[in-house]
Amino acid sequence: MNSIEEKLWNYIDGSCTAEEQQAIAILIAKDEVYMRKYHELLKLNEEFTSMELDEPSMAFTYNVMETIRTQHAQQPLKAAINKHIILGITIFFIVTITSLVMFVLSSVNWHTADTSITIPDQLNINHVTNFFTGPVIKGFLFFDVVMGLFLLDTYLRRKSVLKHE
């Protein structure tokens, strides 16, 4: 676009200062080239304003949003679990259990010939065994079986999802 067209478009749009508008109005009135170009651009501007804007169909927005939604659904979600935290917790428990086993094994008197187990009088075994009745043990085993099946199902589903990718 040359400078004449730019000046005239600014004049038609009204985006120039008052001094520039006066100067362009004088140029349009006195110069034949400016007058012809002004009338040509004025007709073009009228055609632009009379045009009807094309709008996308109603399904277009829905289709675009569905495409975006499916693209996000295809991306695997990253777990928010830090592997270093899991490793730290694992190491803590391994060290704790190992030190407990070592302490127990070091405190055992291995040189005694007496193999009978004596229970201290302070420990009331009958009181402890009252908690482990038949229904409690059955409930505990039922809970363990359900949790085991749940974990097995989760493992197998994850394995099948990885095969299909």
Descriptive account of the structure:
The chain has 165 residues and is mostly helical. Among the domains are: 3-50, no CATH class; 80-109; 134-165. 73% of the residues lie in helices and 0% in strands. It has helices at 3-13, 18-30, 32-50, 58-74, 83-107, 125-129, 134-164. α1 (3-13) crosses α3 (32-50). The protein starts with a helix and ends with a helix.
Summary of the model, kept short:
The chain is mainly alpha-helical. It has helices at 3-13, 18-30, 32-50, 58-74, 83-107, 125-129, 134-164.
Indicate the structural class.
Answer: mainly alpha
State which percent range the strand residues make up: under 5%
What is the rounded Rg?
A: 43 Å
Overall pLDDT: 81
Give start-end ranges of low-pLDDT stretches: none
Overall number of strands: 0
Number of helices: 7
**Main beta sheet: strand number and arrangement?**
none
Helix-strand sequence: HHHHHHH
Helix content: over 70%
The 3D shape can be described as rod-shaped
Distance between the termini: 54 Å
Quaternary status of these chains? Answer: single chain
